[in-house]
UniProtKB/TrEMBL annotation:
Keywords: FAD, Flavoprotein, Oxidoreductase. Pfam families: FAD_binding_4 (PF01565). It comes from the Bacteria. Gene3D superfamilies: 3.30.465.10, 3.40.462.20, Uridine Diphospho-n-acetylenolpyruvylglucosamine Reductase, domain 2. InterPro entries: FAD-bd_PCMH, FAD-bd_PCMH-like_sf, FAD-bd_PCMH_sub1, FAD-bd_PCMH_sub2, FAD-linked_Oxidoreductase, Oxid_FAD_bind_N. Residues 40-212 form the FAD-binding PCMH-type domain. Coiled coil: none annotated. Belongs to the oxygen-dependent FAD-linked oxidoreductase family. This is FAD-binding PCMH-type domain-containing protein. Its cofactor is FAD. One of its GO terms (molecular function) is FAD binding.
Length: 461
């Protein structure tokens, strides 16, 4: 706090709120910044809750005057709570949640703090859709800046971030900037995947939308975990026949109580479950999308099959909410093409997990090419694991398990997804979330536009 001048003037200047380190409410507001109960002992000097773009500009000017860096936060959905840094200004964008739909052009303007559920509920009234995050509480800024592995994104842009048509930002100078493919092109390049490495603060995005699918159906295939190598080979062998509008995910959850009650599985037994979601215009089209996978998996040793379950975007959000049953979280991931050995290692480690709530996921992405933008992750499969538990006395045990698991998976990694990287234990993998050329360009742009690091950038936690 030494050297912070003009506190009273800054407080009066804001439409929103400012909380200084010595204010009575500081610790309560600091802890409330993250949904993760594993709140790190990192203490910003100032917390700013912006109500509008003018508040962001005022905060940038205040930071420059006092020689402070700014860390930006919207929803706080960071498993590593990476936005919470010491000796800086934490700038919270969660109150910037306005949005406006342009029906004629099928676009929507969303401010940084708009949530996935808020956006989808609004678009649904216009029969439009966007590949939001699978968690309804995730806000658009962090999600899109990191690339955005969203609902049906394989068919809608490849990654959600590639649906950004333009963006409004505040530069380190405090100036406003509107960037698109034809103006302020460095900003436009960086905003599509640059994550914490960008050199600006996002106020709002102009996003391309899509016609809302008239029919979304899910097929679930339940297998014993011992069948995992066989079913992964099936998906791998027929991957060329899987269309982008079929979202295929494999998880390793504890068997549902319905199967336990039938005596089909043991209590607390891990299963391998393939969930295939078809986004289509009709039931007939959905069946066609499901057909290649269904044809092979129904001939395998499935314990149970659920077919043609009517599905909504809200079902994705509700499922994510139900999954979050503990207070403390960590996560990690790799992008890989070598799914057979990776799945076998993952199955071995999940049986050793100290938490029954640990959930490994594998999402088929296919081989795709990306537009020229900061996001440049490569790998046909996204492999992630989410660990949750209660009690700070258990932090090390769960974090160590995740670290050991992904240390063994690392030789098979082609890259990583920045939004769900374990930045606490494996910060050295931040550059590998990008191609070598794209990482170098992102660093050069940061140095060019923000040499004083007004915006903190990637931090080694």
């Amino acid at each position: 706090m030494v050297g912070l001048s003009g506190r009273a003037e800054f407080r009066q200047q804001l439409h929103g709120e400012v909380v200084f380190h010595d204010d009575e409410s500081y610790e309560y507001r600091r802890c409330g910044a993250s949904w993760n109960g594993r709140n790190p002992r990192r203490y910003p000097d100032v917390l700013v809750f912006a109500d509008c773009a003018d508040d962001v500009i005022a905060t940038v000017q205040y930071a420059r005057k006092n020689g402070k860096h700014i860390s930006c936060k919207t929803g706080g959905h960071s498993h590593s709570v990476c936005f919470l840094q010491a000796n800086c200004i934490l700038l919270d964008f969660s109150r910037l949640n306005a949005l406006h739909v342009n029906i004629k052009h099928k676009t929507v303007y969303v401010e940084a703090g708009v949530t996935s559920r808020q956006l989808d509920e609004t678009l649904a009234t216009y029969a439009l859709a966007f590949p939001t995050g699978h968690d309804g509480a995730v806000t658009m800024a962090g999600f899109l800046l990191g690339g955005g592995l969203g609902i049906n994104c394989a068919a809608w842009g490849g990654m959600s971030t590639f649906n950004i048509e333009a963006v409004d930002v505040i530069l380190p100078s405090g100036e406003r900037c509107h960037a698109s493919l034809s103006q302020c092109t460095d900003v436009y390049w960086a905003v599509r995947g640059g994550a914490s490495g960008v050199f600006f603060a996002v106020i709002g995005f102009y996003l391309r939308c899509y016609d809302r699918p008239a029919c979304i159906t899910t097929n679930n295939y339940f297998f014993r975990l011992s069948e995992l190598p066989a079913i992964v080979r099936i998906v791998s062998d027929i991957s060329d026949s899987i269309e982008p509008s079929l979202q295929v995910m494999l998880s390793m959850p504890i068997a549902p109580k319905a199967l336990q009650s039938k005596g089909a599985v043991e209590e607390s037994e891990r299963l391998a479950v393939i969930s295939a979601v078809a986004f289509s215009g009709s039931k007939e089209e959905a069946r066609r999308l499901h057909a290649p996978l269904e044809r092979h998996l129904t001939r395998s040793n499935a314990l149970h099959i659920e077919k043609e379950l009517a599905t909504t975007f809200d079902d994705f959000y509700t499922q994510s909410e139900k999954m979050a049953v503990c207070a403390r979280w960590c996560a990690d991931n790799i992008l890989t093409d070598e799914i057979i050995p990776v799945s076998e290692l993952l199955a071995k480690h999940v049986l050793l997990s100290p938490s029954l709530k640990s959930l490994p996921l594998i999402i088929w992405q296919g081989n795709r090419s990306w537009p020229d933008a900061a996001y440049s992750g490569r790998g046909s499969y996204f492999v992630s694991t989410y660990v949750q538990w209660d009690g700070d006395e258990n932090d090390k045990e769960h974090s160590d398990w995740l670290y050991q698991c992904y240390s063994e998976l690392e030789p098979f990694a082609r890259g990583h997804y920045i939004n769900e990287l374990d930045r606490e234990r494996r910060p050295e993998n931040i550059p590998s979330c990008y191609s070598v050329a794209h990482w170098e360009k992102l660093c050069l742009l940061k140095e060019q536009y923000d040499p004083d690091r007004v915006f903190l950038g990637f931090q080694l936690i």
